[in-house]
Amino acid sequence: MTELRIRPAGPGDLDTVLAFWKVAAEGTSISDDRDGVERLVGRDPEALILAERGGELVGTVIAGFDGWRCHLYRLAVHPGHRRQGIGTALLAAAEERFVRLGGRRGDAMVLQRNERAHHAWRAAGYAPQDQWLRWVKPLAD
């Protein structure tokens, strides 16, 4: 099997990433458009981490650090490449980034209905915090 390559996304990857999320990611976000991802990569060029095998995009994770908290979003592995250690490799890269930046704890946004993801996150050492409830307010239409 071809070696897995982990690297940050660049401006030339954005359309590929958006198309990939339509196939591999669960749910959608208000920021799942070119402007949103372009802003992310422009503000923090190492936040969007890609996994490639044989030149093909097979996984992503967003490892955002605001100087206070470490947030994980969009951990997605192509359905044809799951259970091959790609998610584990992406999380390891994200966690290494957080430690390098001085982060102390990672948190992940995981859809309640995505049972498959719950198993993957638990296997990686993450656990839900039942005492917290996410509150949101859209800032744009």
From TrEMBL:
Alphabetic keyword roster: Acyltransferase, Transferase
SUPFAM superfamilies, A to Z: Acyl-CoA N-acyltransferases (Nat)
Nuclease as UniProt keyword: no
Gene3D superfamilies reported in the protein's UniProt record: 3.40.630.30
Gene Ontology MF term list: acyltransferase activity, transferring groups other than amino-acyl groups
Domain N-acetyltransferase, chain residue ranges per copy: 4-141
Residues in coiled coil: none
One Pfam family in the UniProt entry: Acetyltransf_1
Signal sequence annotation: none
Identification of the protein by name: GNAT family N-acetyltransferase
Species of origin: Streptomyces cupreus
